[in-house]
Amino acid sequence: MLVLLLLLSGYRLAAQSGTIRINHEQRSLVDVLEIIARQSRYHVVYSNDVVTDSMAVSVAAGEYAIDELLQNVLPGHDLFYRELSDKTLVVSSLKLHGIQQPAEAKGIRIRGHVRDSADHPLAFASVGLYAADRFLTGSTTDRQGHFSLRHAFDAGQSYTVKVTSIGFQSVAFAFVYPDTAQLAAITLKRDNRLLAEVQVQAKRPPIERRADRFIVNVEGSVLEIGSNGLEILQKSPGLWVDPNGNISLRGQSVMVMINDVVQRMSSADLAEYLRTLRSEDIAKIEILPNPPAEFEAEGSGGIVHIVLKRGRDEGFTSTLNTQYRQQVDRPAYNMGATFNYKIRSLYVFGTGGYGKDRSSYIATNDIRYPDQHAYNSFTNRENNNTQAMLRLGAIYEFRANQSIGLQTNLNRGKLLQQFDTDIALIDPQRVTEGSATSDWTRTPGLNSATLNYSWKIDSLGSGLKVLADYLDSENPNTNEFHSRYTYPERDAVFRNATPSTTRLYSVQTDYNQWLDAIQLKAGLKFTNTDRDNEVIHEQFESGQWLLDPGRSNRFRYQEQLLMGYASLERQFKRFSAQVGLRAEQTIMDGNSVSADIRFRRSYVNLFPSVFLLHRLDSAGKKSLVLNYTRRLSRPSFATLNPYRLQFYDFLAQIGNPDLLPEYTDRVEAGITLAGGLSWDVYYATTSNTMAQYAETVDKMIEYQIRNFGSSHRIGTSVYLPVNVRPWWSTTNNLNLYYLRYQIAEADYRNTSFNISTYQVFTIKNIGDADVFAFYRSPYLTANSDMADYCSVDIGFSKRLWNNQARLRLNVTDVFNTAREREVTQDPGATVYFYQKRPTRTVGLSFSYTFTSGKTFSNRKIEQSAEEEQKRIGN
């Protein structure tokens, strides 16, 4: 197959000088500008705040002159372009330059030159032409200070030219055409008072909706400072982040990617990592409920893709940030720095961070048995966690169309939890009181390296990428437990050590080819995982620790994944269609050395996908969508281990080597209307549904993840952005679904919804205030009923020092309403659980950016070892 892909690279379409060829209808302005850059000699320069991902255009397939194409797509978004040199085009906003939309260019062209009082050319000055205070046309100066204005001038008619530039005094003067001598040398004087007061603020909407995804704009919005990655996800439409950090979309698990790299770690480890990821490092978050074939099939609920910021300065750019948060009477703080440096064909980048978090939880557990026995406990949990991370990388472009990159990631943590519990054991004859302590220590570490080769085959975007990854993860883990009762025969002292090591390597190749109006994508990938996991259970007897072989276990696991995909996309005027097919083979070999249990499995699955889109208007702002996808969720490596791990006197976790992946088929239809209103309806059916089930065995509550036949889900979602006033904007989201499934011949049905609103208020000359409110109704998971959950957050941010610094104050869970309640029912017992975390916090954040260099576009290294990192657990 790889040979076939390389042969296809011989099919080339060379771009003609001065003309641009569009192979299929385009509906994204960003895509059009990228095509111009690929097929011409020009570097197209623009700010992400001026040209956004949500700007839609309609360009039919064909050949266009560059100026003709730009005149077609820019004016509709109040944009214009200037040719600064024979190699550079700059796209800018008429609104930011303070001029209105010019009339269609025609008539006579006049020229002029603008300079400062030191006789230096003044670039990017705004020039407007007026007649009797009526705006006629406008322009901006190039890098040498030159400008031109085109208009149907009338001889003898009076006109006025106004020239403005930030930090300079504006000038306006009249002339009678054709006497334009005054334009030859226009001088602007500096306005020191104005320069000290002017502050340019380009804001982006916090949330945008596109045809196939939601985009949460962190960079350039009020979300940019003062939060961690998990908190940003909590504010993202459609996502539910439970108090333990588990992430779901429409009630199903998701695959989390960061810069195209799937995070292959357990949900608990992923949550800890996302808490250390600073919002200052995040550019945007993409939420894809129905990903296409080029994405791995893992994640029944879809994909959450976190895109980190890219440096834009040639030379050196760096950002420093710090945050302090008070959590009731416990502090938390973090600090970090990022840098980007480019010299000629070499680009070097890096980011590092350190954080420390102390907090205190309280929890109660009430277990009631049918024979009138009961277990009551009250626990105080102290957390003292430290996390550090470092990411370094470099890219070298050894040819104009070829580059090679290397990226390394290092993560270290020290997580300390202490549990102090008061216990009451109740039976009809007596009450036994006791206390227990548990010290849980984890020191996880993860190292990874990625080698990336990229070859751009032609100017139309065809190319080949080859990626090789290596990952090494170690997770030492010890939990020591002591319990003491009024009746000493119940006393217990034991400890569990659960160290694990995981080594993973993968090789991936992706090919993309344009064939006239058709885009072909195909790729191959191989991943190998080796995991060694132990459970070492020891009892403290006669003053020493003694190994308990019956409760200890060593589990060796090896897995290979062989994957391939192909997809085809074509557009027909306002209608587009994409079909894809992905194949994944899984080969498993698990060996419980201690229990002498071994299993081997091999299975192949196909994952088809179909995406249909019909645009209802030429701008693409109104559309109908219909799609179908098939996805799966594999069990994590740790859950396949046939171990039994006792946490307390009455609680234990059991592995399940018989677990099978769950498969989800989803059909979804939706409509997007003017103003951004969108409405989706979907139906999903899941086979081999995985869920954690609680069962009572000899008064011990045992938790185990099991397969439970099929589940059916019908749902709808509504997204509504509203600009209430020029200074007040809001985004609102509603998700509602009905779920039905069976467990142990019991039929479970539940209707659940969550609703959120995000309000942003711009206070002129002061700053930005924001309010986020969220409510989730009660819902079911396996045989547990989860209570409703709600919270309200408020924040205020202020830009300082010419936008180089930002200060933010935020308060989470203002009314202290967020708490966890659940009821688990089993024929042998009913468990009532309650937990309160320090959700009401006050935080202060500060970030500062300094830059030295020229504008350029950063690049990022893609990684191939994706899905397995998510499954690395204890």
Question: What's this entry about, in short?
Answer:
The protein has 874 residues and is mainly beta. The chain folds into two domains: 15-197, Sandwich (Immunoglobulin-like), CATH 2.60.40; 313-871, Maltoporin, Chain A, CATH 2.40.170.20.
Overall description:
There is one protein chain. The chain is mostly beta strands. The chain has two domains: 15-197, Immunoglobulin-like; 313-871, TonB-dependent receptor, beta-barrel domain (Maltoporin, Chain A), CATH 2.40.170. The chain has seven helices and 55 strands. The protein has a 30-stranded antiparallel β-sheet that branches. The chain has a six-stranded mixed β-sheet with strand order 13-14-20-21-18-19. Strands 8-7-10-11 form a four-stranded antiparallel β-sheet, with no helix packed on it. Strand 18 (255-258) and strand 19 (261-262) form a beta hairpin.
CA distance, first residue to last residue: 38 Å
Q: Percent helix among the residues?
A: under 10%
- Uncertain runs with pLDDT below 50, 5 residues or more? 1-17, 95-105, 193-202, 854-872
Structural class: mainly beta
What is the fold-level CATH name, i.e. the topology of the largest domain? Answer: Maltoporin, Chain A
Shape: elongated
Tally of DSSP β-strands: 55
CATH class of the largest domain: Mainly Beta
Largest sheet: 30 strands, antiparallel
- Tell me the number of helical segments per DSSP (H or I, 4 or more residues long): 7
> Number of folding domains?
2
* C-alpha-based Rg, rounded: 30 Å
CATH architecture of the largest domain: Beta Barrel
Assembly state: single chain
Mean pLDDT: 82
The CATH fourth-level homologous superfamily of the largest domain? TonB-dependent receptor, beta-barrel domain
How much strand?
over 45%
Protein name: Outer membrane receptor proteins, mostly Fe transport
Pfam families: CarboxypepD_reg, OMP_b-brl_3
Domain Outer membrane protein beta-barrel: 455-848
Keywords: Receptor
